[in-house]
Specification:
Length: 301
């Protein structure tokens, strides 16, 4: 007879929660362009400001419910860590704002390219700054990514600066967060809190000068407030997935986000996907496949 509290009686088995959380996190990140598109004709910097403000309030609320405000206050009393988090917060603010700008300027495809490149930039930064070993397959993967981007520049005569800036900013963000020993949720709460005073001043100035759109109508106001939830929930799902899954398994889910964004950009928003894009993305996809296989094979048994 099955005990009343056994895993078999749960609606979703514990073993299935990891993949479910990963799907929720990366699926939401991949579909977020739909949300940012709703802010049409709203300046990206205003959307970003509200994203920071409401994310900070939402995250602090979660810490309050979890009775972890003590962890937050303890971290704020560590000047060195706060200084590093101020730098990571600046990188995160730049990354979030640039992504919103890319989506609302009809460059979803280029933004997705940035998040495809990001893991390869991260492994390169680990080699340069942390002296992590770069296996032969990973070296070839990075070289393939460089070839793909180089071909794009050569053929179209333009640098995919949004993609490169997104990849570099998030890779450096990950590098610094790896160096500073901070719990993910508490660290993100501090990062958003550090930027919130500046964003509050900016939003207040917009309101007083009559340029802000917050409060213009109820649907738009709710969208501004919801930006905090749309930002924070995927991060919480990601943290839950990371606790339950091996990093190698989690690594495969990370390609779901940019893949969904790419499909949205091409098939929903009608952005161009030329033969040059095909070659560039093919190089990146092959590089990611090689990178993933190398990472799996290099793990100790």
């Amino acid at each position: 007879m099955t005990p009343p509290h056994s895993a078999a009686n749960w609606p979703i088995a514990e073993s299935h929660l990891g993949p479910l959380y990963a799907l929720l996190a990366y699926g939401t990140w991949g579909l977020l362009p739909i949300y940012w598109k709703l802010f049409d004709h709203t300046a990206a910097v205003e959307v970003l400001s509200h994203r920071m403000i409401w994310s900070a309030m939402f995250l602090v609320g979660i810490l309050l419910v979890q009775r972890r405000l003590g962890d937050l206050l303890a971290l704020l009393r560590m000047p060195r860590k706060v200084l590093v988090l101020l730098l990571t917060a600046s990188l995160l603010t730049f990354n979030w704002g640039l992504y919103i700008y890319g989506v609302n300027s009809d460059r979803v495809v280029e933004a997705s390219l940035g998040y495809y490149i990001n893991p390869l930039v991260s492994v390169l930064l680990g080699f340069v700054f942390l002296k992590e070993r770069l296996y032969r397959g990973q070296q070839v993967a990075v070289a393939l990514a460089v070839v793909g981007v180089g071909y794009f520049i050569w053929q179209l005569g333009t640098v995919p600066w949004i993609a490169l800036a997104l990849a570099l900013s998030f890779a450096f963000y990950g590098l610094l967060r790896k160096v500073v020993a901070v719990a993910p949720l508490v660290g993100l709460a501090v990062e958003t809190l550090l930027i919130t005073p500046a964003t509050l001043l900016f939003v207040s100035w917009l309101g007083m000068s009559g340029q802000g759109r917050f409060g213009e109508n109820l649907p738009l106001t709710l969208l501004f407030i919801g930006a905090g939830v749309a930002t924070s929930m995927p991060l919480l799902w990601f943290n839950n997935a990371a606790k339950r899954l091996k990093l190698a398994t989690l690594g495969f889910f990370q390609y779901l986000g940019p893949s969904l964004s790419l499909l949205l950009g091409v098939f929903i928003y009608g952005e161009p996907f030329t033969p040059t894009h095909v070659v560039t993305f093919s190089c990146i996809w092959l590089a990611l496949l090689l990178y993933s296989v190398t990472a799996l094979r290099s793990k100790p048994r």
